[in-house]
Queue: 2 jobs
Job 1
Amino acid sequence: MLVKNLHTKVFGNSADNFIRNFTLKFAIFGFLLHLVLWLLHITKLFLFPESAIHLLGSPLYALYTPFSILLGYEVYEIIKAIPESFSTAVGKQYEVATLLVVRDVFKRLSEAQFSGSWDLTGDLGLVLLECSAFILLFYTALKYQNFGRILRPRSWDKLALNKFVNGKKAIALLLMFIFVVMTGLSFLGWLSMTLDGQINIGRSIFFSDFFTCLILADILILLASYSFAHDFYSLVRNTGFVLSTVLLWVAITTPGASGIILFITSAINGIIIVEISDYYNA
């Protein structure tokens, strides 16, 4: 009962509405604040430290701020979805990956220098690759949303099912605590590096460490689910979900074109798993 009540307070409708509304208002505020700082910089009404100028070089950088805030809410959505469905939580992970990639696209467009040639080895090739990954990841996230709605639940013993769901709620609460702590530490670390002139606004900040925790949680849920569902189909399907998460983690920690190719590989892997599962579940 303690886990159930605490889970309701943290992830219930009232908490979800509050967090969603706060995130939206905070994202709008962050976007407008970043634009104001950019205007102050280009008009030279205020002289910023040399370490901060890199963040104010283009108005497109202002898009980075609200997307980073919205990514925080999407991580909350991943954690909230864990007790509901394994596939739904994986779909939320693809939503986070989609926003990470489109955020990188905005950042690259603000820095890219395009030539008049058809050379695809430079910025143009990376932008095209990132846009392709964005579309594929977006499609994968939608596939998982639809799959979670039509998936037929397995016939488990009611008592065993309640124990399993309560276990996933406990994992979600632990991940939420880790999420809050890691967010604070990551922000302080980023702020310290920025003030020292070490500019780093890549996707590895926070998300690399958090996805590591998410993989461990997925493996724990996988092992727990196999104690209730012993069939090979459920084991391999859930293992495929974990594989998708691992591929996303590697993609997040890998820079350049290699990381984008891994995002695409994860999306293709996720789509194939859903298609096979959908066919078997029909």
Note: The longest helix spans residues 158-195.
Job 2
Amino acid sequence: TILLPDDVRSIPLSVVVAILALFLTAIVPVDYYVLGHFNHRRFTWILVPVVSLVFTGFTTWLGKAYLGSTDYRTSLEFVDLTTENRVIRNSRFEMLFTATQREVATELKQSLYADVSVQRTREVDKWDSGRGMMTSDIAEEAEETVDRTDQSGDVASSEYQGTIPTLFTVRQLMRKWSPRVSRQTSLQTERPIPQFDLDDIRTAWQQSSDVLENPEWQQSLREEIQTVLPESTVLLFTQNRILDLTRGADQQNPDEPSGLSDTKHQKLVNLVCKVCARPAVGYFSIASQISPNGAGDFEDLSILDPNDAGQLLLVIVARQGNDYVVFRRVYHKGS
């Protein structure tokens, strides 16, 4: 929902009913009375197909006017930085929304690629809430659903050409107005990195942990970042707190994002709060990070160890054109 375009909408039911009423009026009363008045009812065999073609063309044009006729490509990108703003990992979630059914080719270099199954996510959510299935049962039925879909030809699997991950091309048969999401992981990004100085944060934090509570220091950091990235959201993560420098909010429990809202930006901020730091339960009670994978729970994106009080995470959420970008930088206290 975050990546879907804002202006996608279907034809209103009232418009569909009006078109249907006009069509029935044209082929029944008009055909019967007008042609009957001129004693030319034999032309019904010509009038009905012509009227049908006219209304079909008008409905097609109206559908394009509502849904659009251009392709829509957008992404959510997590860019992890280190000293001097060097990129050490880039995780990109890209959504492609085409207005026509056609083949789309994406060229990738030095990247790992995974096609995210939107259908499986929807079915898993429905089964999990409605049937109370176990995870293994959900996975088995989801795989069966995907297999049946592939066999019917509704959704074609991706075709890879070239050498993975060095240089390859991914070809996909896109359905009309059906979004598909993919994930790309690499150690670089073609996106230009904003030139802001983030190295001084570690020095100030090492000198005194209370600097995080200083309103003047928070304002100075926020203004420095927003000078380069206007209207961006600046977050600071510690062991058990999230400081929103943009709104001046202090959240004590990272697992329950505050300020819930239906706006896309707030949904994105809530998602970032959930994935940057994982609670120290389950697998994460013995591990702080896991390797990149294609799972839909974003577990591999967590880079803050909730058990380590000597870690500080800076997160900058910004929008660049149609894309959403999340810049992240981890600071370690001590040597």
Note: Residues 120-155 have pLDDT under 50 and may be disordered.
